Structure formats: structure tokens, C-alpha cells
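Let's sit down with a protein and look at its sequence and fold side by side. Once you have written the record down, we can walk along the chain together.
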Amino acid sequence: MKKWKTLKTEYIHKSPFGHIRKDICEHPNGIVIDDYYVNEYADWVNAVVLTKDNQMVLVEQYRYAGADFFVEVPAGKTEGNETPEEGLLREIREETGFISSKPPILLGEFMVNPAIQNNKVKTYLLLDAYKEFEQALDETEEISVKLVNFEDFAVLVRTNKINTQMFTISAYYMARHYLTEQLK
């Protein structure tokens, strides 16, 4: 296999949230695609946050495109010159008020949707978290913090008792695998 060749790039839209780019690209077999759209976003971070008594710290918020409320792991993007870990800890503190004296454990880094997006998500596990602060939300954020037993979360997902999204599911199962391996 060979990579595709970019012949021309044009930005259709730019915003602080992300950019939309229209590329003209050539497939290795010679076919030219005149309108391949790419969404450019900053890289994201998220974390399974666990308290000492095995409670998973989750956030519930309205998601406009999904037209409903979703329960998710704390997440966001880095700002300025933050490292992914610094951005993650800031997001957790702002969204939930929880912190930990332990450093975040990197579980994995994955492309979000490489067919049409250029960004990655880094997923972490934060252990022994505790509530130390009040939330510090942006003016457009309305977030409710939920504590759910780590093992019970799998049942809630499998029985469709909560609305959630794929990043939360993948983070949960990566954390579960990591913790299972640590107990061996």
C-alpha cells in the first residue's frame, strides 16, 4: 500500500473550536478526489478518575449534537503550552473539583477518527482522587458530577441505563484491563 498524495488544500472554515479543510488528493491508483474534507481539532485528553473507595467520578452534561444528556469521563483539550497531563488535571479539577496526589497513568493514545479527523485522544487513569475544590466551569458549561461504583458502570453501559459516548466506554475498559493486570 502507498499513501495518498495531497495536491491542494483549502480551508473552508476556521474557528477556535476547529478547522474544516477541503483537500484535493490523489489515490495511489491515480484517481483524484476533488473534495476530501478533513476536520482539524486539537488533541484531546480524558481520564477514568477513581476514588479510594472505587467510585468513578463522572460528569453529566447536555450535548447539543446528541440532543440529550450524556454521562462521561472528565475530558477536554490542552490549552497554551500545557502538557497533556497538565491539561488533563486542569480539566478534571475544573469539571469536578477532584484532584489526586498520584500522577495520571497513561493508558493509551489513539486517533479519534482518522478517516476525517486529524486529532488524537490520550486516555489516562487517575487513582485515589478526592474532592478538594468547587467546580470552575466555563460560562457555557453546566456539569453535574456523578459518582458510580467502578464495577457497576459496566452494567449501566451494557443495559443502556445511561447515555454515554465511545471515549468513555473505551477509557473505562482500558482502565478495567489495566487494573485487572495490576492485580495479577
About this structure: Residues 5-40 form one domain. The chain has a mean pLDDT of 95.
